[in-house]
């Protein structure tokens, strides 16, 4: 198998960097790729390129149909290169190939969605308030947008920011995580093939320490108008502080510790099967993971038995195999972090199933009788670890769900729509699932957090508005 080498992507072309770094597979340690280790100067070059493309280039004022064509052509190219993109994710991040192919398909749909919205951008008019005047409300691109992304959705995490940014007419600099930078580099090349003008999309890859330098440069640069960040809450706070210098628009997609609430009148078999996928999907390395299970005491024993049964169906193994449902954790460092939480769980709660590990793998692990105020229930683990917390009343369940610094997602399982809706309204999170988790097949609904899970939204119309400014015009009629 050949080992690809990637450079920086600046001004629409591959650009070598003085220093390079290697990424090894977290599954078997083989070399997955070599990448440019970009630094402060490269970050400045990328921002300069995007700034020139915005101030002097054709993209911000290009007709909507041009943006539509580029976005739809990129979607087509993603689909045509799905195996290549998925292989990058498998080798660099250990994501199972079935999930990786699903991510490519979701990314293509996201590009198509924003291609459609690009055609539909409309301002509005204020016509009747004063018969002697006319008001216009225009929607303009926000300017140069910087995208700083995590490794857990290494393609969709970039596309869900890039597609609305391009649809709005912005130009972009991007900094993917050093743990899985390849998909962003391939995306840049495919955008070039699709005909995106040079300078509209620029990518700086870097290894871990330089990544923070590049990220801080983007966040603090006065030539950047908007920052869209996905990552941990601590890094997001550092980004927000750095962005204050020129009061740039900031969107932060941060961590979570979401509660999945199961009532006795729920379809229990479905609820148990989904409760397992809610915290094992992507090996638990997922911001919206249903990592707290709030379980009604009346169904406690029956439901735990179902959980054990479904946990046993997970297939841990080679991420390149289609049958694998759970790959390794992203790195040795993350693996050790998760093992620390397993030790904590054994000391403070009751191990129901799992707890084993080999290589960078961790088995689906369920702890029962977890105190909601404990670290196990309050901190984002980012691994396949579920904390079961019993409850008796609906009010207690809502209070437990809300007793968290985070507010990203949540689930409620019940046969009663009245109960479901009261809980949905009571829980303070950016998204809720009723009798499902992670998806009901409704793509392109806004995603984002309350509280310390972040600010701003991705996907949907709200995702486009993040990259637009409103300009009002008052015309005095004579
Ligand atoms: P991270 O915070 O370590 O890194 C995120 C990105 O920020 C990386 O590209 C990194 O290089 C960069 N970075 C690091 N230090 C920086 C600094 N000082 N200034 C600017 N940029 C800097 O997060 P991660 O480990 O890559 O990702 C995991 C986290 O992402 C989890 O907390 C997860 O919940 C969160 N996440 C959230 C969402 C969401 O939509 N809410 C989605 C996926 C992941």
TrEMBL record:
The keyword Oxidoreductase applies. The active site is at 253. Pfam families: Aldedh. InterPro entries: Ald_DH/histidinol_DH (IPR016161), Ald_DH_C (IPR016163), Ald_DH_CS_GLU (IPR029510), Ald_DH_N (IPR016162), Aldehyde_DH_dom (IPR015590). Keywords: Oxidoreductase. It comes from the Bacteria. One of its GO terms (molecular function) is oxidoreductase activity, acting on the aldehyde or oxo group of donors, NAD or NADP as acceptor. The keyword Oxidoreductase applies. Residues 20-473 form the Aldehyde dehydrogenase domain. PANTHER family: ALDEHYDE DEHYDROGENASE-RELATED. Belongs to the aldehyde dehydrogenase family. This is Betaine-aldehyde dehydrogenase.
